[in-house]
Design a protein that fits this description.
- By secondary structure, this protein is an alpha/beta fold.
- Helix content is 42%, strand content 12%.
- It folds into three domains: 70 residues, Up-down Bundle (dopa decarboxylase, N-terminal domain); 246 residues, Aspartate Aminotransferase, domain 2; 109 residues, Aspartate Aminotransferase, domain 1 (Alpha-Beta Complex).
- The strands form two sheets. Strands 1-7-6-5-4-2-3 form a seven-stranded mixed beta sheet, with helices on both faces.
- The N and C termini lie far apart (55 Å).
- The mean pLDDT is 93.
Length: 472
C-alpha cells in the first residue's frame, strides 16, 4: 500500500468509525454467533500474494463484524465498563501512526515525560497522598503482580531475584473471598504458592472483615509463616463491595504487612470529592491501582499504578544490559524498570487527550450521571414485588434477581429461573448483562457506566428485564 492509497483508505476508515459509533445501537449488543462460525469462514492457509484493501474490508464487514460483542454500545451492561471515547480514539490513531517503542526516556522523551505528568494529574484528581508516584501499566492484573513481587523482594532483602527462594521465609498473602481472580494468579506467578493465599471472610455487604484478617495473620504467625501482603478492594468485581481501608491498613501496619489496594473500577469515582470517603485510610497503603480504561473513557489498555516506595519497585525490576545504558538515566524515568515488560506503548497520549477534552468537571459530570442512573435502577428493583436487591449499590453496579411474588421456590429453582432469564435477555440483542454468585445465589449484574449510556437505555433495559421475567 503506497502513501496515496493509505491516505484514501485512512479517510474511509475514519468515516466508517464515525458511522459505526453513530449507528452502534442498530447492532445486537452481544454477538449471536455460535462457536466455530467465524473460523469456519477463514481460509486454512494465508494468501500467497497481497490482496486489495477493499477485499479485506469487505471480509471485515461480512465475517468479523457479526462476531463482535459491542462493548461501546450504550446497552452494554455486562462485566464492567471498558470505555472508549472520541478523543481517546483519535489519540490511539496518532499512537499507532507514530509507532514509538517507549521503553526508556531516550527512545521517546515526550512519552516518558508526558506519562510522568499524567500520573501526577491523576493523583491530584483522585486525592491520593503526595508521597505516591505513578506509572502506567497495561492492566490491574499486572499492577497487582508488580506489587506482590515488590513486596516479596523488599521483605526478603532483595535476595529471591538473585538466588531464588532458598531459605527465604514462607510467605502468606491475604485478600477477601470477593477479590479479583488476578490476586490468586499473581500469588501463583510470584512463586508464593496458591495454598498460601488466605481468602478472608466478608460481611453482609461483601466487604472484608478486618477482625477476620487479623485472626488469619495471627494464625500464620503462630504457624511459622511470614505475612507478606494484604490486598484490599475498592469495588469488587462481583458486587462492587468496598473494603474498609483504614482498619485494614492499621492491621497491616501493626504486623508489618504490605498493603495493596485494587480499585480497578472504583478508582475513577475518586475524582468526585463526595466519593473519597471510600478511600479513607489510603495513606496506609503501599501501592494503589485503578484503570482509566474501565470508567474514565480511555481505550484499553491504561492502568494507573501508584507506589510509595519507588526505589523498591525499580530495584525489583531493574536490569541493565549494555545496549540500554544511556547518559540521562540518573535524571529521567526509564519506565521499563517500573514493571515487567521491556516494550511499552505510548499510553499517556490518550489519557492526555481525554483529560484535556473533557476537563475534570466534564469527567465528574459523567461519573455522577452514571451513579444516579444506578440508583434509579436499584430503586426500580426495590419497588417491584417480583425482584430483589442482593447487595448494596455504592457505585454503578446493581446486583439483583427475579423472585416472583406469592410463589415458593427453592434456591436451586430460583438460580435456574434467573439463569434462564439472563439467557433470554442476552439472546434478544437489546441488552447485555452478566451474572455472579453471592452466597451461592445466582445474581444478575446491571452495570451502568458505558460512555454514551443515557437514562432511556437504562429504562429500556428495565422494561426488557420485566417483560422477559414475565415470560419465565
Amino acid at each position: 500500500m503506497n502513501q496515496r492509497d493509505f491516505r484514501k483508505h485512512a479517510h474511509e476508515l475514519v468515516d466508517w468509525m464515525a458511522d459505526y459509533l453513530e449507528n452502534i445501537e442498530s447492532y445486537p449488543v452481544k454477538s449471536p454467533l455460535k462457536p466455530g462460525e467465524i473460523i469456519g469462514q477463514l481460509p486454512q492457509s494465508p494468501p500467497g500474494s497481497g490482496e486489495p484493501f477493499e477485499a479485506i474490508m469487505e471480509d471485515f464487514r461480512r465475517i468479523i463484524l457479526p462476531g463482535i460483542t459491542h462493548w461501546q454500545h450504550p446497552s452494554f451492561h455486562a462485566y464492567f465498563p471498558a470505555n472508549s471515547s472520541p478523543p481517546s480514539l483519535l489519540a490511539e490513531m496518532l499512537t499507532a501512526a507514530i509507532g514509538a517503542q517507549c521503553m526508556i526516556w531516550q527512545t521517546s522523551p515526550a512519552a516518558a515525560e508526558l506519562e510522568e505528568r499524567m500520573m501526577h494529574w491523576l493523583a491530584k484528581m483522585t486525592g491520593l497522598p503526595e508521597d505516591f508516584t505513578g506509572v502506567i501499566q497495561d492492566t490491574a492484573s499486572t499492577a497487582t503482580l508488580c506489587s506482590i513481587l515488590t513486596a516479596r523482594e523488599k521483605f526478603s532483602g532483595y535476595k529471591i531475584n538473585d538466588a531464588g527462594f532458598g531459605d527465604s521465609p514462607r510467605f502468606a498473602v491475604y485478600s477477601s473471598t470477593q477479590t479479583h481472580s488476578s490476586i490468586e494468579k499473581a500469588v501463583k506467578i510470584a512463586g508464593l504458592g496458591r495454598e498460601r493465599l488466605r481468602k478472608v471472610a466478608v460481611g453482609e455487604s461483601f466487604a472484608l472483615i478486618p477482625a477476620a484478617l487479623e485472626e488469619a495473620i495471627r494464625q500464620d504467625l503462630a504457624g511459622g509463616l511470614k505475612p507478606l501482603c494484604a490486598v484490599a478492594t475498592l469495588g469488587s468485581t462481583g458486587s462492587t463491595a468496598i473494603d474498609p481501608l483504614k482498619p485494614i491498613g492499621e492491621i497491616c501496619r501493626k504486623y508489618g504487612v504490605w498493603l495493596h489496594v485494587d480499585a480497578a473500577l472504583a478508582g475513577t469515582a475518586l475524582i468526585l470529592p463526595e466519593m473519597r470517603a471510600m478511600a479513607d485510610g489510603i495513606e496506609l497503603a503501599d501501592t494503589f491501582v485503578f484503570n482509566p480504561h474501565k470508567w474514565m473513557f480511555t481505550n484499553f489498555d491504561c492502568s494507573a499504578y501508584f507506589v510509595k516506595d519507588k526505589e523498591a519497585l525499580i530495584r525489583t525490576f531493574e536490569i541493565l544490559p549494555e545496549y540500554l545504558k544511556t547518559r540521562e538515566a540518573e535524571r529521567v524515568n526509564n519506565y521499563r524498570d517500573w514493571g515487567i515488560p521491556l516494550g511499552r506503548r505510548f499510553r499517556a497520549l490518550k489519557l492526555w487527550f481525554v483529560i484535556r477534552s473533557y476537563g475534570v468537571e466534564g469527567l465528574q459530570e459523567k461519573i455522577r450521571y452514571h451513579l444516579r442512573l444506578a440508583q434509579q435502577f436499584a430503586q426500580k428493583v426495590q419497588d417491584s414485588p417480583d425482584f430483589e436487591l442482593l447487595a448494596p449499590v455504592p457505585l454503578n453496579t446493581v446486583c439483583f434477581r427475579h423472585r416472583p411474588a406469592g410463589k415458593n421456590f427453592t434456591l436451586e429453582e430460583l438460580n435456574r429461573l434467573n439463569a434462564e432469564l439472563l439467557e433470554r435477555l442476552n439472546a434478544s440483542g437489546k441488552a447485555y448483562l452478566t451474572h455472579t454468585k453471592l452466597n451461592d445465589v445466582y445474581t444478575l449484574r446491571m452495570v451502568i457506566g458505558q460512555t454514551h449510556v443515557e437514562q432511556r437505555h437504562v429504562e429500556a433495559a428495565w422494561e426488557l428485564i420485566a417483560r422477559e421475567a414475565g415470560r419465565g
